[in-house]
Write a structure and sequence with these properties.
This protein is 80% helix and 0% strand. The chain is mainly α. Helix 3 packs across helix 5 and helix 4 runs antiparallel to helix 5. The model has no long low-confidence stretch (mean pLDDT 81).
């Protein structure tokens, strides 16, 4: 099971956080900051705006976290993608290494 993942990981270039630089930071800020849009939806719905306008604004705010993932990945680029993927896989392997198979 892990042999395939190890083979894939061995063929990918390895990047450090220093090599990724400001693009990684900006992408992370966009990802986290996009979730601030959801608590604003009740405030928009409480306003006296036209119902169609309120629906449109709340729809855009609701989709912001989803869309921000694409924007952040585009800003971060391939090096950040490989860096995050390697970190996540390493944590998952450590976490489930001793877990029994179901």
């Amino acid at each position: 099971m892990f042999a395939r993942e190890t083979t894939i990981a061995a063929t990918e270039p390895e990047f450090t956080a220093e090599q990724i630089g400001w693009r990684f930071t900006l992408g992370a800020v966009i990802l986290v900051g996009a979730y601030v849009a959801w608590p604003i939806i009740p405030l928009v719905m409480a306003t006296d705006l036209d119902p169609g306008l309120r629906a449109g604004i709340s729809g855009v705010l609701g989709a912001t976290p989803f869309v921000s993932k694409f924007v952040a990945i585009a800003i971060m680029g391939r090096p950040a993608y490989y860096f995050l993927k390697r970190k996540v896989y390493k944590r998952l392997r450590r976490r489930f290494a001793g877990a029994p198979a179901k």
